[in-house]
Amino acid sequence: MRSKKIIRQAWRQCFFDLQNAEWRALLIALFLATALASFLALLGNQLEKGLGRKSAEILGADLSLSGSKAVSPEVLQQAREYGLDYTEVIQFPSMLSYQDNMVLSSVRAVTEPYPLRGLIITQPDTSTMIPPAGTAWAEPQLLQRLGAESGSKIQLGYTSLTLTARLISSPDRGSGFRSFSPQLLINRADLAATRVIQPGSRVQHRVLFSGSTEAGLAFEKWLQPRLLPQQHFWSVHTDQPMAPGAMSNASRFLKLSSLFGLLLCGLLIGLSLQRYSQSQYDRCALLISLGLRPNQLLQLYLCQLIIGWAGSALLGTLAGCALLQLARNMLSGLIPTQLPPADPVYYLSGALLSFILMNIIGLTPLLRMSRVSVMRLLRHEKLPRSSTRWSAYLLLGGLIWGVLTIYLDSALSALAALLISATATLLAGTLAASVLLPIAQRAAQRFALGRLLRFRLHQQRNWHRLQLGIMSLLLALLSVLIVSRTELVSRWQAQLPQDIPNQFVINIQPWELQSVSEFLQHQGIKSRLYPMIRGRINTINNQLPSALLSPEQLQHNALHRELNLSWSSEPPPHNKILQGQWWSGTPAETEISIEQELAEELNLEIGDRISFDLAGQPFSAIISNTREVDWSSFHPNFYMILSPGALQQYPQTYITSFRLTAEQRSISNQLLQQFPALTLIDVDQIISQARHLIGQLIQASGVIMGLTLAAGLVLLQTLLRQELAQRRYENSILRVLGATPAQTRRLDLLEFGLLGLLSGVQGALIAELLIGFISSQLLNLPMILHPLMWLQLPVTGALLFAAGALFGSHRNTYSQLQRH
Amino acid sequence: MKTFSDHQHNLNIFTDISLQIATGESVAIIGPSGTGKTTLLSLLAGLDSPSSGSIQLLGHPLHSMNESRRAQLRANHISFIFQSFQLLPELDALDNVLLALEIQNHSAARQQAIHWLQQVGLGERLKHKPAQLSGGEQQRVAIARAFATAPQLLFADEPTGNLDEETGAEIIEQLFKLNEQQGTTLVLITHDQQLAKRCSRCLKLNRGTLRELS
């Protein structure tokens, strides 16, 4: 038979077999696997591109050098010598106000030319590259939160700027949390008038470079050894990934939550392929009797599988794209609105994954089909049960592990995920199945056809283990998701003390100290102002940290950033001294009180000398005590507090926190109106934003859970179908023997209802344990029971199984016997 | 000889069977259920190998050929007719016949398929799917399919077993008419005495031996 004819026959079988439930289940499994995997691959790639690997358009340049201090003129001179163009950017967080609304925004002050690569898109189009002095361009989200529009005059520090355009998309949004806040683009010429940038302000100075690749690489080579510890350098040539942070975690969370769904799809592909191939043995035997060779038969079915896969994969990829859009709407705020499109290859990745899964899992059933004998048509004999060897299972497991490793980007996570899913399903299934038979035994004594029920449950015990395991885990995961979304965050928030501060004010300058204090006192607000100075750890006991600490300890964040240091004559009221003594008065040599966990992690002890770099000046002090800090107290907390005196000569700012009730909200507006250069952080707003984000993330994973549930239900149906065919045949015999339709229906409902009920009860148990673990271990909340869940899950389980059992034809008559 | 073994016991189902079938003959094999009629047919068609003894088919030593060569021989020279018709449900009558010809890369397959369906009286029902045909009609499609590839040898396993008496008689008529026209060698297994009588030879298989009935 020629290939063209084989393809035609495969095409015909592909459509005709849509009547075959197993073929349909296979196509659905391929569709779901593709949709899930494409959705996650596309989202992951977009997030990665959005903040990870930078293309020149996103970076706004070929190279970018950033740090907390301005880049030295020597570097700029060198760049000029290499023939590179450059432009300087200053980015900082600041409160913007318009009428009564205030929003924390990330402000970029730029000079022409800007950007060096890529384009700024505004609405309406503007004739200039950057906003002219006195004007600003704001992202739509910012306008919406401020309630402002084009033409509005907004307040930034001591100056007001006119909004002239909406910033639809722009490169160089910055990295990390800077890139999450809605952004405002201003002209560098306006920066001084705002008076927002003061010594100690959190500012990022960035220089963007562009030029030929050779010049860029040569400059990079020159610059790398000269980079200062606080500087970060990104290059499109060497493609250094940026710290992915929250988005990467979001992407990983979504990937992990989809894992169970993908494994279910794999199981469904395996099961439906196996059953489909069994239903094809007669056809295979006939085709062989007509002269088709086994390798042609393999080609035929492979071709049919590929056609089926192509259709499912196409629809799956489209569904993945639609889900991506849905998730991006759900995650708006968490991820930037303007993400670059995903690489074309990622549009194919879901389809590729389902193709690999199908081929890995489908190989054995396909080979069995090609070994069918024509004798089957004469005798209707079964294929000899070739016992699949352990080595084959191991090989299959190994291949699936390989695929998951690529998918999760970690061999260890993939192995853990595989083992945990398999063990959990097996354990849950075995546990529930062991309870099933004794319950059936009791039921058997009270029911006319009870013996048959017991027999049925015994006969199907292996399948029941799988059904019970999968369904109880699915129901449990679904409940955990719903409870985390609705209950855990509110409970966590509710257990916070009522008087906990909800407003932080930073950037208070020394000359404002007195008036800010008086303002707060006048409003009846209790607060304490802490001085704050930023310093980097240089040496410990006169040695570089690299000479003293292990590679793991050297990764500690405290060694890689500027720490906020404070000084005080009194210990903070919410801290507890654990070791050593707090100083009295002003000691002769400056002493340090260090946070206990940091001391432990860096092997620091009382008597150790730490030296800091404070605004370029060396400064050292001796540790005299360790403190326990409750970071969740929402008071200003410091890793290091120094004894008073020595630090006063350095540029400093002050920080404070206090609580405002809902009625006192206007006080923060008054404070900012009076002191425009202060930065106010509304913790309530941040918590509500975090809650919103968690909600969004859970909602997005709800999409995945929905697909997982769909895969689980199709799997359940596929498992039930074979049982149901057997049940219908048995029921026909029972009816012929005189049982009433009501009796046989009751028998079915009892069997499947019992299975559903049990998976629901076990699902509730697993969910309680998981929720208990999350609340007690992660959120420090007492464990509570969820009585409603114990009612809802068993009922849901029973309904799902019973609906499955009642689904389909009810030919429980003699005709069923004849058809069998 | 064909021996079945369950590791403890050996069961020899044929003893001293010697059978020669000449080209163009029609041979019926009858016998009670369970005597090994189907096993004998599977040995004759090369679907199974004898435990001992030899089988020559169309000049080829079946007993010493491997499965792939036997499959090749079957594909080129043998057709089957089954009790339960074995038509592909998604294909209409014409496509069912066409499929067998396409597998053998037959030239002018379509004309050939139409010709054979007309021969069995289904010229008007080319586009009907098996579900739209009666049992008798389905078996006629199977007969057309079997003859379309111009086999030298046709094996039929209870070809009227699923049909009523009247339809069965029509099918027998058709089968023998074509067999005569084509000069095909026909080996059929049946319980149907009427059918057996139509064959040029009738063999009875009983307790492992094959006896020629006059």
What does this protein look like?
The complex is a heterodimer of chains A (820) and B (214). Chain A has 820 residues and is an alpha+beta fold. A 6-stranded mixed beta barrel of chain A has the order 2-3-8-5-7-6. In chain A, strands 12-13-18-15-17-16 form a 6-stranded mixed beta barrel. In chain A, helix 2 runs antiparallel to helix 11 (344-370), helix 11 packs antiparallel against helix 13 and helix 14 (411-445) packs across helix 16 (461-494). Chain A is elongated and about 100 Å long. Mean pLDDT of chain A is 80; it is low at 239-246 and 808-820. Chain B has 214 residues and is α/β, with parallel strands linked by helices. Chain B has 7 helices and 10 strands. Chain B has helices spanning 37-44, 67-77, 93-103, 109-119, 135-148, 165-182, 193-198, and strands at residues 3-5, 10-12, 26-30, 56-57, 60-61, 78-81, 153-157, 185-189, 201-206, 209-213. At the A-B interface, helix 1, helix 9 and helix 12 of A face helix 1, helix 2 and helix 3 of B.
Strand content of chain B: 15-25%
- N→C terminal distance of chain B: 25 Å
| Radius of gyration of chain A, CA atoms, in whole angstroms | 34 Å
Instruction: Report the helical percentage of chain B.
Output: 25-40%
Report the major sheet of chain B: 6 strands, mixed
Largest sheet of chain A: 6 strands, mixed, barrel
For the biggest β-sheet of chain A, the strand order reads 2-3-8-5-7-6
Strand content of chain A: 15-25%
Which sequence of SSEs, written as H and E, runs from N to C of chain B?
EEEHEEHEHHHEHEHEE
Largest interchain contact: A-B, 27 and 29 residues
- As residue ranges, the low-confidence spans of chain A are 239-246, 808-820
Number of strands of chain B: 10
Structural class of chain A: alpha+beta
* Tally of separate helices of chain B: 7
The structural class of chain B is alpha/beta
